[in-house]
Hints:
With 222 residues, the protein is mostly helical. It contains 10 helices and 2 strands; from the N terminus they run ααβααααβαααα. It has one domain.
Amino acid sequence: MPVWAKRLDREKLASLAPLLLMLVFPVLGYLYKMFNQPTVEVHSLVTSFDRSTPFVKGFFLPYSVWIIYIYICLIYFFIKDRTSYYRGILMYTLCALSCYMIYSVFQTTVPRPDIVGSDVFSQLARYVYERDKPFNCFPSIHCFSSYLMMRLLAVSPARNKLNRVLIYGMSTTIIASTLLVKQHVVWDVVGAITLVEVMYLLVIVLLPRTIGMRQTQRGVDA
């Protein structure tokens, strides 16, 4: 292979290296399992709205493809808007760790309905319920991560009509699915959105501004 070709291959590999940051996801998944169990006291945040929300087995499909959707969004940002990609990895990690801290001191649960039937959605429902214990509910990881993709796109220079329809539509569907498959309650959604907004304000808005002010002050003092 010519020297120029080897150099080109190395440059391509180097350009893809930031994708390795996504290896944080299996680490966070492992930590999730550690907290997915009842503590001494388990709370319920079920409201009358949640009790009146129907159970729709078909929504287990968007609920189940959630993590694949998050991966696709992040890879899209990696290609189209590298800043949003880095922000997404950082924000997801900080929000997930914040959720784990909350789970460790304030564990909640959601009552699940009995699954009747042998159709594909019933089988998928049983699979999800068996894999994921009914804890780690407030705030919802499904909801914060789906809302985070919407939040990143809202300020991304890569946004356009098509990706807004796709990302806003899919994120909203996944958030709705958490309620319709009885994995979460409305307060879990509210908590998730609030977590993203607070973290965005602290990490993306205030922290860079504070660092910039300190650097400016140092320049003046110098």
